[in-house]
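Model it.
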Amino acid sequence: MSPFKPTFYAPFAFIVSCLDRLSFRWKFATVAVVFAVAAAGFLHQIYAHYRAQAVVAERAIGGLGLVRDSLALMIELQLQRGVTFTARKGGDDFTARLPQQKAAVRSGIERVEAALVRLDSLTALHPRWASVRAGIERAIHSTEDQSSAQSSFDTHTAAVNELLAWIMDIGDEAGITATSNPALYHLNLAQIRSLPSLVESLANLSGYATGTLLAGGRDAGITSELAGRVSAVDIVEGHTHNRIDRISRLLPDSLHMDDPVVRELHDAIRYVRNTTRSSTYLSPAPVEAADLFDVATQAIDAATRLHVDHLYPRSVAMIEAGLADVRRTMIADVLVLMSFFVIISTLFAAIYTSIRRSVNTINEGSALFAAGDLSIRVQVQSQDEFRHLGEQFNAMADEIASLVEAQRAQAQRLSGLLRNTPSVVFALDPHTLNCTFISPNAEALLGPADHAAPPDLEHLLGSIHPKDRATLRDGLLAWRDRGFVGMLSGTYRLAHDAAGQKWVELHHNAVLDDAGTVLEIVGSCTDITELHHAHTQLELAASVFSGAREGIIITDPQGCIVEANAACSDIIGWSRDELLGENPRLFKSGRHNPAFYEAMWRSVKDNGYWEGEIWNRHKSGRDYAELLTIGTVRSPSGEVLHHVGLFSDITPQKEAEERLRKLAHFDPLTGLPNRTLLADRMEQALLQSRRSSRLVAVALIDLDGFKAVNDLHGHDAGDVLLKTVSQRMTESLRAEDTVARLGGDEFVVVMSALDSRSDIEQPIARLLAAINQPVALENATVKVSGSIGVAFYPQREPIAPDQLMRQADQAMYIAKQAGKNQCQVFDDNLGLVS
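Modeled.
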């Protein structure tokens, strides 16, 4: 199909060629921009028209204000003319008014110039104003020089005429009368022509007539002048009357002939006119010159009020109303244009959306189809050429889908197998060892990289940890040199794992053809991190388990032993094989009651562990102490899997503690309590006595003849004697009585819970008998006796244990002095031995 070629004119072809370079979106954007620029041009034209009208209105309002100020100046200048003319005709009262009137003229000049400064649009009038002001200055000067009354009058009249022409120039420059509104036209014309002319004719007549009345003399020339001025007033008044009548007809609600200011102006003009006529022919004149001047001034004031209070405000209001109409028209035009723009834009956007939707549908369908979604079909909603294009696309898609569906199904099946296999599958070129294929699950295992088509061996090695790359590279090269015989396997770390803790297992195998030629190298990469770590942990645990110095026993939840280490066998005497299947109750020593074991297993159950000391029994039958910790191993769900007992043999420590305890509290030779333990036993006995009110007897024993045995037979014989006597004394007394050795051959016996002092007679007799029994030595038999001193507790006065010991000691010495082998009792009532 040949491309479209426009056959119109060259500019159109150029536009088409330019649009051909743009995308569909930019084509519509270009048209939208052109349309927006056109709309902006229309808006600009509307605003420019409004702005021009606003400038005209502002200029007209400014011009009317300048006319108002100029008319006020003209009236002041007219009054100055009348006052000057009358004063020079002999009116002394008017001479006094002249300075005030000149000041009023100066003030009027300043107002006009201030208005000119504010009106930038009327700068063209500045040269004209300079000429007008020069005439006014000449008129002011004429009031001060020696010129005649008529000369000053004519100078003022010339200046007034200049002001009249100036006001007309303002109207022309400001476009005051350039309006299509008849009412506004007559209003403005009355302000710049009718009213100024009426005021001038009236002021001219009143000034001239007042001066004539003061001069007194009237000739034919003066009479003719007055008559001419009266006629001028009649003519101008008629024009003004006609102008006001037109305004009242056009604007009935603004001004009409019956308004007070209009009637006042009419009455004052008629009075001046009639008075002037009568004064021309009557002698003496019917009125005073000053009265005539004042009435004329009132008429001029009425004309001023008519202008300031009625004509000027109404003109300004009508101009502003016209400007408001123009503004409303502009807003309406803008709204119409914007509505048109919105409608066109909406239609344009709808057309664009319709076309774009069809294009997007086809584009998206094409993209999805190209991406591999062969089931995609496009549904074009528009009833135009795009629908036909969509139907052609669907037909083409059906044909392509039918051709590739089988291949795609097979490829998807293979891809699914490779993607979901736990190992990464790859292929290498046998000559270059470059990777020619790698399965899609490679990134999950080997880390982020372009594994779709790795270029060379180094790229594949990049996934391996730097410390293992050389091993893998050297292994592959050596395997290739051997002709790829057998399978190449190895375990390596991955590079993307910074800690080097992820491990993989690689297997390589050669694919051969029928002739035995290597076609390709296939390989697999499997994540064995968990297996490797488990193996490592098992090795570590086994090392710790077997090498620990503490015994370790592992039981099942029922308490059967499932494992024991070598240290356990060393401590308890049973071998591992003998322990397996047994219960730890096998080790019970019988030293602990059932409550001890109940508390232990309650702690294991509630807290998950127990720790403490326990006595168990060795296989040989001996008891041993161990420090035992029992812990609980639970599953993730909290189920108890095993109990682990960790223990160590602390029997040597216990024995050392017992030895220390005996050294601290017992005599090393006889095994009897020493001074320290004796003091504790005495404190307990005295405390029990205070609670029970029963007696305690403290007996101090000294062996008679021990020194001779020691000197004759030696210290070893003396030690045998001491041990034998100690044992005999202990056996002769009650279990709750205490026999202690103080040192040498001195002993102390504490007997508690006695009801009377006589209760010690039999124990003392047994003690003396036990001491008197012969003791067989290695080479001889010896015999000793004992001297005993006894003191009782409590006594009349409180007594300390050491004082009680001194009393018994005192009684013992008395027994020695009395012949030995006897007992003496300390009488606490008399402080003597009885």
